[in-house]
Amino acid sequence: MSVFTHVTVGTQNLEEARKFYDQVLAKIGLKRLADLGENGSIWGQDKPSFFVLKPANGQPASVGNGVTISFNAPNRTAVKAFHEAALALGAKDEGAVGERAWAPNAFAAYARDLDGNKLAVYSFSEE
Question: Which fold has domain 7-54+64-123?
Fold first, then answer.
């Protein structure tokens, strides 16, 4: 059983966020499943799992200090592709591609999206 139904981040520029996430999430097998008009979009595989929305209260979107959204990648190649795509699209590098010592076979990379949300992508596959 999955712990979460979905995760949501805010955006200041929905069109740019859509372009960014369409390309970056495709590297780990996710696709845009729905648009919510000018309010946001939803990505996943076969069900919604990641939302990018304009804040419902009308205030500017902001990032949470200490918050990281971590995506599961099918393999190490996908981790590298996700990170490379994110940086090519203007994301800030927050942690180079490589092994992480906290768990067996942990291989990851970190970046901040165009709105400053901290993203991670992990694979635990042996390669």
Answer: 2,3-Dihydroxybiphenyl 1,2-Dioxygenase; domain 1 (3.10.180)
